[in-house]
Design brief:
This protein is mainly α. It is 64% helix and 0% strand. The chain has 5 helices and no strands. It starts with 13 loop residues before the first helix and ends with a helix.
Amino acid sequence: MDHDEGFATPRWHIGQIMERVLQLAQVPPEELAVSVGVLPHELGRFLAGAELPSRLMLERFARACGADPTVLLMVREDQQRRMRV
């Protein structure tokens, strides 16, 4: 799946981190989308950095990949804070 296709320049860098977590988990993106509760194109938007995932979505994503959600949540909050400044 090409996550960058059809998306503008990434706004949210957390997508790059999510992409790496997904690669390390070796879970097919379509399978992960189902387990996280989003459509594959929605997951693609998060991975491309076009949209900021919710806290709940990040927690589900991390757990589905066998990762600790703490770092992803910290990155998300940092990015949100920077966008408000």
